[in-house]
Design a protein that fits this description.
Structural class: alpha/beta
Oligomer: single chain
Helix content: 25-40%
Distance between the termini: 39 Å
Shape: globular
Radius of gyration: 18 Å
Length: about 300
Amino acid sequence: MPSLSIVVAAYDMQREAPRTVLSLLPPLQRGVADVEYEIIVVDNGSPVPLDLGRHVRDGAKPPVRLVRISRCEAQVSPTRCINAAAKETMGDWLMICIDGARLASSHLVRRTVEVLSRHPKAFTFVGSRHLGAKPQMQSVQEGYDQGAEDELLRSVAWQTDLDELFRISVWANAHDQRERIRQNESNAFAMARSTWDALGGYDEGFTRPGGGLCNLELFERAVNRKPSLGTLNVLLYGESTFHQVHGGAATSLDGYFKQSQEEYTRVTGRTYARPSYPFLADLGETHDRMAAVGRFLIDHESHA
């Protein structure tokens, strides 16, 4: 089986990034005993260098590598550091996680490699959720903070079963409010290395803190790529990433999205609009994913 490289970008996430890495490793990742993969965490100039502790060990399987970008060399946007890290990876496939604060669901790795093994030109992606009772752009304005989130995480056994995170999370605004299965970006998308190279990675013209709308722009380019790069887009329904609050630009800076839309127009020459694209939903029947998490995903109203 070909191998997978997972690139995770992080900035000032001493609390969040180690949890994210933990969620991408066995035994929390299920069914990966025969999967060859690596995790590359890029610390993009954090004021206090990121420490992944026990996760970075010689000879560990899968290997976790920490790449540090010095503060004098780092840019506030993660576009350049992710593009550079992707060039240094070993895998035949690439999974890109632009936000190191997002925990993963339990079959994210397994299902990604299964789809890409069957369909080498596919583009896979997963849903996005926020920890807490409301999307964090709203909840942080109402007092939700890291302390509240730590208590929330202690209320479920997520370190035994990542699917417990569905109990304490809601849909992110990346999802269409009327039809949740449609989304305009994903924190964990994957493709063949050749597809990534042909797409050219992130557009480094996106220079705002956090990258502005760079992830939305790349997602749009990927799902509507040239037919020669493949036409199959696959939503791994029942998998997700779960955002931990960390004071990032998108949730803490007033006017962030308006200014990011203005940057999008400058970079692309057009006004941003949610993309329309064809896709198939893989239900994860082999792993009985709907039985495990379907009730959290189907009951949209209680989790809106």
